């Protein structure tokens, strides 16, 4: 092949428009960055933040009681109803309780699992375990929830029946990978020499866990809990399938969009988990967990 | 005689099909500064880890002060380790790091604080108690790791390439400092290194490792002046071998012999040779001027090549560079040549 000499003079003589554009982008890092980011920023701005803004705006409107038509007047009535009605308070607290329970159960199961994957398994076994953890995510959410419905039904393998407990079990199963993976990643980054150093200085297993592993893995635990907590808080399908007559925030939103045809009230209810999550994120920001996501 | 601080008997370790350590017997005396020297993969770190208890031997025993500890966990052994990456706890202050071992052993608070501060003072880190490891330089972290281990007053201190991560200048400073700390505390230091100069300058005795075995154990002078095998001769310093027909022609003997470069004198062809000296003629093929000394590569007429190191006492680079391509005679005292076991 006849390669052209790679000198600056030769490069200048070969200036095609495409090369000129590349050179221009190379010199102007700002232009390059804005071109790359414009599409995702548009998506984030319009589809995501815009939708949230629309949700909040809708929460300040009201629906005509008879026709169900939207009346675009600003009113706090939806939020007043939400906070003064006993049943909504109960449902909100129940939803938070379910989310907390799911998060704790997942943590208890995920931590030993992640530790075994990151610190005990051979590199080969490690790869297989990661795949094993990820595999359930390839199956449809509905299929998995119905599988639990079958197992939990009074004729099923477990036969525990439906209700809040069944909901917590099902949600714990569904979100477990989201807890395992961040903790696994966090423990992977933890040098083995730190565990050896603790043992070398006289610490047994439990003490090493308490003083070295847990504090250093804590941000990863919080990262995992953000997933399990928020996914549980927003869920309404699992509870419909295995929850019996129990209701969570998601169901209230769903029922107000569907049967009640009261979109503004549904929007007001939907802001509740958003606010809870914002409070939660603000609280965990200090742990450094957000750098672990 | 009292029991040695460390005694290794028939120590072996295999990782699957890989035989990392293939039979090591060593006695390390109380209060000794002992180096395990060898290239990477020679098994020296594995031996250290078996003494610490992080690996359990495939066969053989580890004794500390006459007690068999082969089956004991790391936390049951009276040894402490300075890790190659220091392994400081990043979420604890320097003081908490140093106090960790004492806290585990339930040493009362006041005594704990006093001993930790004394340990930090002995490594010249007063005033750094509240810092986090992340806020320290490499050399300071190294000293925190040392203080964290020494504060427990172990029977043996294990150091895994303790100076490996430091730059040359700091490394030389720490070599001197480690040696004086060891003399002060009187604890047995057992350290692993691949740096022959570090091993020679710091230790009382050196064990040279190759392919999972100990090739030679001895004082630095013994290792350097009388290497037992070709591997030791080559790994510790420049090997400078004379063998085969060259040995026959120059020395009138069969076998493989070695002379250290600084023991060779570069002389003119006609210079007189003492009866106690041997000499060989050759052509200078390369001259490397290195400030205080010059290295001459000489192709021997009898075959083979020797490297001669000459102090630049009176000469400059101009003078020595002119010697390239000339015929010279290399002269050395007979007692500086030694036979090598192949």
Automatic annotation (TrEMBL), chain A:
Location (main, coarse): membrane
A biological process term (GO) from this entry: transmembrane transport
Gene3D superfamilies in the record: MetI-like
Keywords on record: Cell membrane, Membrane, Transmembrane, Transmembrane helix, Transport
Protein location: Cell membrane
Signal sequence, renumbered to the chain: none
The keyword Kinase belongs to this UniProt entry's keyword annotation: no
Presence of the UniProt keyword Ribosomal protein in the record: no
InterPro entries with a match to the protein in the record: MetI-like, MetI-like_sf
Domain ABC transmembrane type-1 stretches: 92-284
Topology in the lipid bilayer: Multi-pass membrane protein
Chain segments annotated as transmembrane: 35-61, 91-116, 128-148, 160-181, 212-233, 263-283
Single GO cellular component term: plasma membrane
Protein family according to the UniProt entry: Belongs to the binding-protein-dependent transport system permease family. CysTW subfamily.
Listed PANTHER family: INNER MEMBRANE ABC TRANSPORTER PERMEASE PROTEIN YDCU-RELATED, INNER MEMBRANE ABC TRANSPORTER PERMEASE PROTEIN YDCU-RELATED-RELATED
Protein name (Swiss-Prot/TrEMBL): Spermidine/putrescine ABC transporter permease
Native species: Planobispora longispora
